[in-house]
Structures are given as structure tokens and as C-alpha cells.
UniProtKB/TrEMBL annotation:
Protein name: Hydrolase
Location of the active site: S130 (charge relay system), D253 (charge relay system), H282 (charge relay system)
Keyword RNA-binding: no
Provenance organism: Leptospira ryugenii
UniProt KW Hydrolase keyword: yes
Alphabetized UniProt keyword annotations: Hydrolase, Serine esterase
Amino acid sequence: MLFPPDNSLAEEYFNEAIVLPTIDGTEDHLWLEHNPPLSLSKNKEAKWNGHYIILIHGMEGSSESHYMVSVGKEALLRGYGVIRMNLRNCGKGLGLARKPYNAGQSEDLDAVLSYVERYYTKKYVVSGFSLSANLVLKYFGENRKFKARAFSATSPPLDLRRSCDFIDSRAGLFYRTHFLTTMKEKVESGIYDISRSAIEKVLKSKTFFDFDEFFTAPMSGYKNVLEYYNICSSSRYLSNIKTPGLVIHADDDPVVPSEVWREIDWQKFQNIETILTEKGGHVGFISDSTSDYPDGRWLPKMIMDFFDRKLS
């Protein structure tokens, strides 16, 4: 139950890779995975409903992350086309960018949505997880050019500073160690546009705060880490969201503090529906096996039921 599912989107269905240039002048590229609607490929199981779903993974995840695959498959079987977006230097996109991803990279979502509108459809929904759930909330709160029909945000770090403090605390040791290890490995590999002396400084980071201060913030064009956290925290954009959205969080999330969630008066935001569960962890949401959820994963159905309802 705790092991990720096989990537059936690549094994059972037609799947193609798309290498997409970013639009920020860096000449970086993003790696996307595309599953066209089943009725447009050899498999005629589900009639295309005219919509695509764009899925965006969390910190140090990829298009292969279990939630990306399970939600993508659920969407495909319901008649959607599916785009799984890798953030910069994640998954198979490792080495395609000289800049890192961050929690507020709206321009990269712009690039993907522009591509979807140009080649597939102007009807789409967007689903972000963890760090990218923050990105999605920020994006739709900015009311940018590209307009989705709806969005979902699962386990978003609504306040980046407080989420950083939480994961830098004793309670976050396991996740802090895991994430810092993989992020430092990328920095040390030399894929980023950064000097050797700067690399050595980054590698000495003991906390998330230090890593973002020495690397993420300056590499992303922010004056310092506090400016990065302030500008990119999604909580400050909620009141401007006009797109229908679903925000999902678990009270036992070991990465994102629930106190931030509880301080927000969600009823003020008429376009946002919320689900707060007692259990679920961080983008986990696995329960005992039932007839409705044979593998125990109920998150895909909850997200796709919301989208189906908004598109009907």
C-alpha cells in the first residue's frame, strides 16, 4: 500500500515526451510527458471531453511521482488529455536548465499553458501538489493571461517562511535531510549556472532556510530568502482568485504546518472549496482498500470528481 504504483501512463497508454523552452530568456527547457485523450489514440475506452489536465509535482518529485501517475490515469480514463509537467531539472528534465525551480515560478506555467492552448485545446484544468500547489494558488491569484476552467492544490505550503521553520524544526528532520540531500546533489553536479565558491557555500547549508538564502533566492532573482518567501507565499494571493478551485490538506501533514491552514478564513474565498482531513500525510491520502478505492488511493477520485462537476 505504501509503495508507489507502476507508471501505467507510460506502460499501458500512448505516451510522448515534449521538451519545451522556457519563456524567461534563460534558454532553459522543461520536460513534459503527454498522454493524448484515449479516443484520439488506438484505445477507444473513453471519449475525449475536450479538456486537458496539467499536473505539476512537488519538491524534488517528478512526472513519475505516485500522485502524478494515479491522478493522471484517473483523468485519462474519464476522457481528459494529460500533461505531466516536470519542474526545472526534475525527472527526465535533469540537466536541461541552468536555473532551479522555485515555489512561485509562474512564467513556467505560462509556457506550458501557452503550449497546450496552441496545440491541443483552450479548455483545461490545472492540478498542483505540495510546492506546486503553492505555485498554482499564486498563479491563479495573479489572474494571468491563461485561464483554466478550474484548478486543484493539494498539500500547499501556504506560508513559505512558516513551512520552512516547520521543516527546519526537530519534527521535520527526516524530510529536511531527504530533500536537502537530493537538492545538494544537483548543485554539486554542476548543472546550475553558479560558481564553485558559491557551490561550496550552498553545500554547507544545514537548514532549508540557509539553502534558500544561499541558492534558491539569488538564483531565482530575489534579493534574499525573506523577499522570496514573502513574494511567493500563496496565502497572500487567495483573495484575488477568480478561478474555481479545490484546496486539500491533511491535519497530520508532516511537512506543512496545519496552524497556517486554520488561521485562514476559507469561507471568505467564494471560488475556493476546501477539504481538510484528519489523516493523509503530505500528498499521501491513502486509506484501507474498499470497493471504491481498491488501492486505497482516494485522492484521484476526489480531484477528478471536482473537475467533472465544474466542467459539467
